[in-house]
Amino acid sequence: MARLYRVILPVSSIEQAAAFYSAVLQQPGRRVSPGRHYFDCEGTILACFDPRADGDPWDAVPNPDHVYFAVKDLEACHARVSATGSANLGAIETQPWGERSFYCADPFGNKLCFVDEQTVFTGE
Predict the structure, then answer these.
(1) Which residue range is the domain that position 45 belongs to?
(2) pLDDT for residue 124 is more than 90
(3) Phi-psi region for residue 43, left (φ > 0), alpha (ψ -120 to 50) or beta?
(4) Does residue 60 have a pLDDT over 90?
(5) Is residue 1 domain-resident?
(6) CA dihedral 41, 45, 48, 49 (to 10 degrees)
(7) Considering the domain boundaries, does residue 63 fall inside one?
């Protein structure tokens, strides 16, 4: 059985990414290279990656689909995302499959969804 241990979020400013995710996730994370800042999300690393800052010859391109986070206090998380000025912040809603969640995007266009951990649906 494999275990998911790292998810890459492409960003174009590692400093801005570190600030955004530190505020939203309520943890400082840690810089592991000039273009990588890691956040431990209960055993899975959220890796913000700025290829130019790491010396790579290409630009970051946002992920094509959402990255989902389960959170204890959905309303508080929504308020933190709102405080960052996220332009694509949606309202908290209950989805047809029962999850209470909201959708948004980070400053780099990566699509995010935050879900109340009490309502996480795993397909079972």
Answers:
(1) 6-119
(2) no
(3) left
(4) yes
(5) no
(6) 180
(7) yes
Q: How many domains are there within the chain? A: 1
The phi and psi torsions of 90 (rounded to 5 degrees) equal -95, 170
Residue with tokens 């998911």: 4
Task: State phi, psi for 46 to the nearest 5 degrees.
Answer: -90, 115
For 79-116, b/e burial (b = at least 16 CB within 10 A) is: ebbeebebeeeeeeeeeeeebbbbbbbbbbebbbbbbb
Q: Within a domain: residue 102?
A: yes
Question: Rounded mean pLDDT of 42-63?
Answer: 97
Predicted TM-score of the model (pTM):
0.95
Helices (H), the chain: 14-25, 74-83
Dist. CA 17–CA 23, nearest whole Å: 10
- How far apart CA 101 and CA 116 sit, in angstroms, is 6
Neighbours of 2 (CB within 10 A): 4
d(CA 19, CA 123): 33
